[in-house]
Specification:
Length: 134
């Protein structure tokens, strides 16, 4: 995995300027995987969905830029084991992150935004142009 992304992609779930689209449970799982509780020695990576081949992604696997910025803003970068390893290997430098990127200020803000998320309820409305004729 590479750590070259410095900001969130257009459809990043960590963006604060887009309506939340994940369930609260999924957000809790993501944040737990990233170790926002600050348990030293814990923490995984979170691959940007735009770099996952099975989802049509291209190029090398990249850590989610939005997740990196949220963790840095919250002061949690050093609590994630994989990010500490990447820093030691010289393949990740948090000083290069775009901290002005439109992401949540931290895990609590992301959780709060997703608590208010309305479940997807839109259903196609039948109108005269889409109804089948008998």
């Amino acid at each position: 995995m590479r750590f070259d992304m410095r900001r969130p992609c257009a459809h990043c779930p960590f963006r604060s300027d887009r309506p939340p689209y994940l369930t609260l449970g999924r957000v809790e799982m993501l944040l737990d995987d990233l170790n926002v509780e600050g348990r030293m020695g814990q923490g995984k990576t979170f691959q940007c969905h735009e770099t996952i081949p099975s989802l049509g992604g291209k190029g090398d696997a990249q850590h989610c830029g939005g997740a990196l910025v949220v963790l840095e803003k919250a002061g949690l970068i050093g609590m994630n084991q994989m990010l500490r390893i990447a820093m030691r290997l010289g393949i990740f430098n948090p000083d290069q992150l775009d901290l002005q990127a439109p992401v949540y200020d931290g895990p609590a803000a992301m959780l709060e935004a997703h608590k208010e998320r309305r479940p997807w309820t839109a259903k196609p409305k039948a109108n005269s142009s889409t109804r089948r004729s008998k």
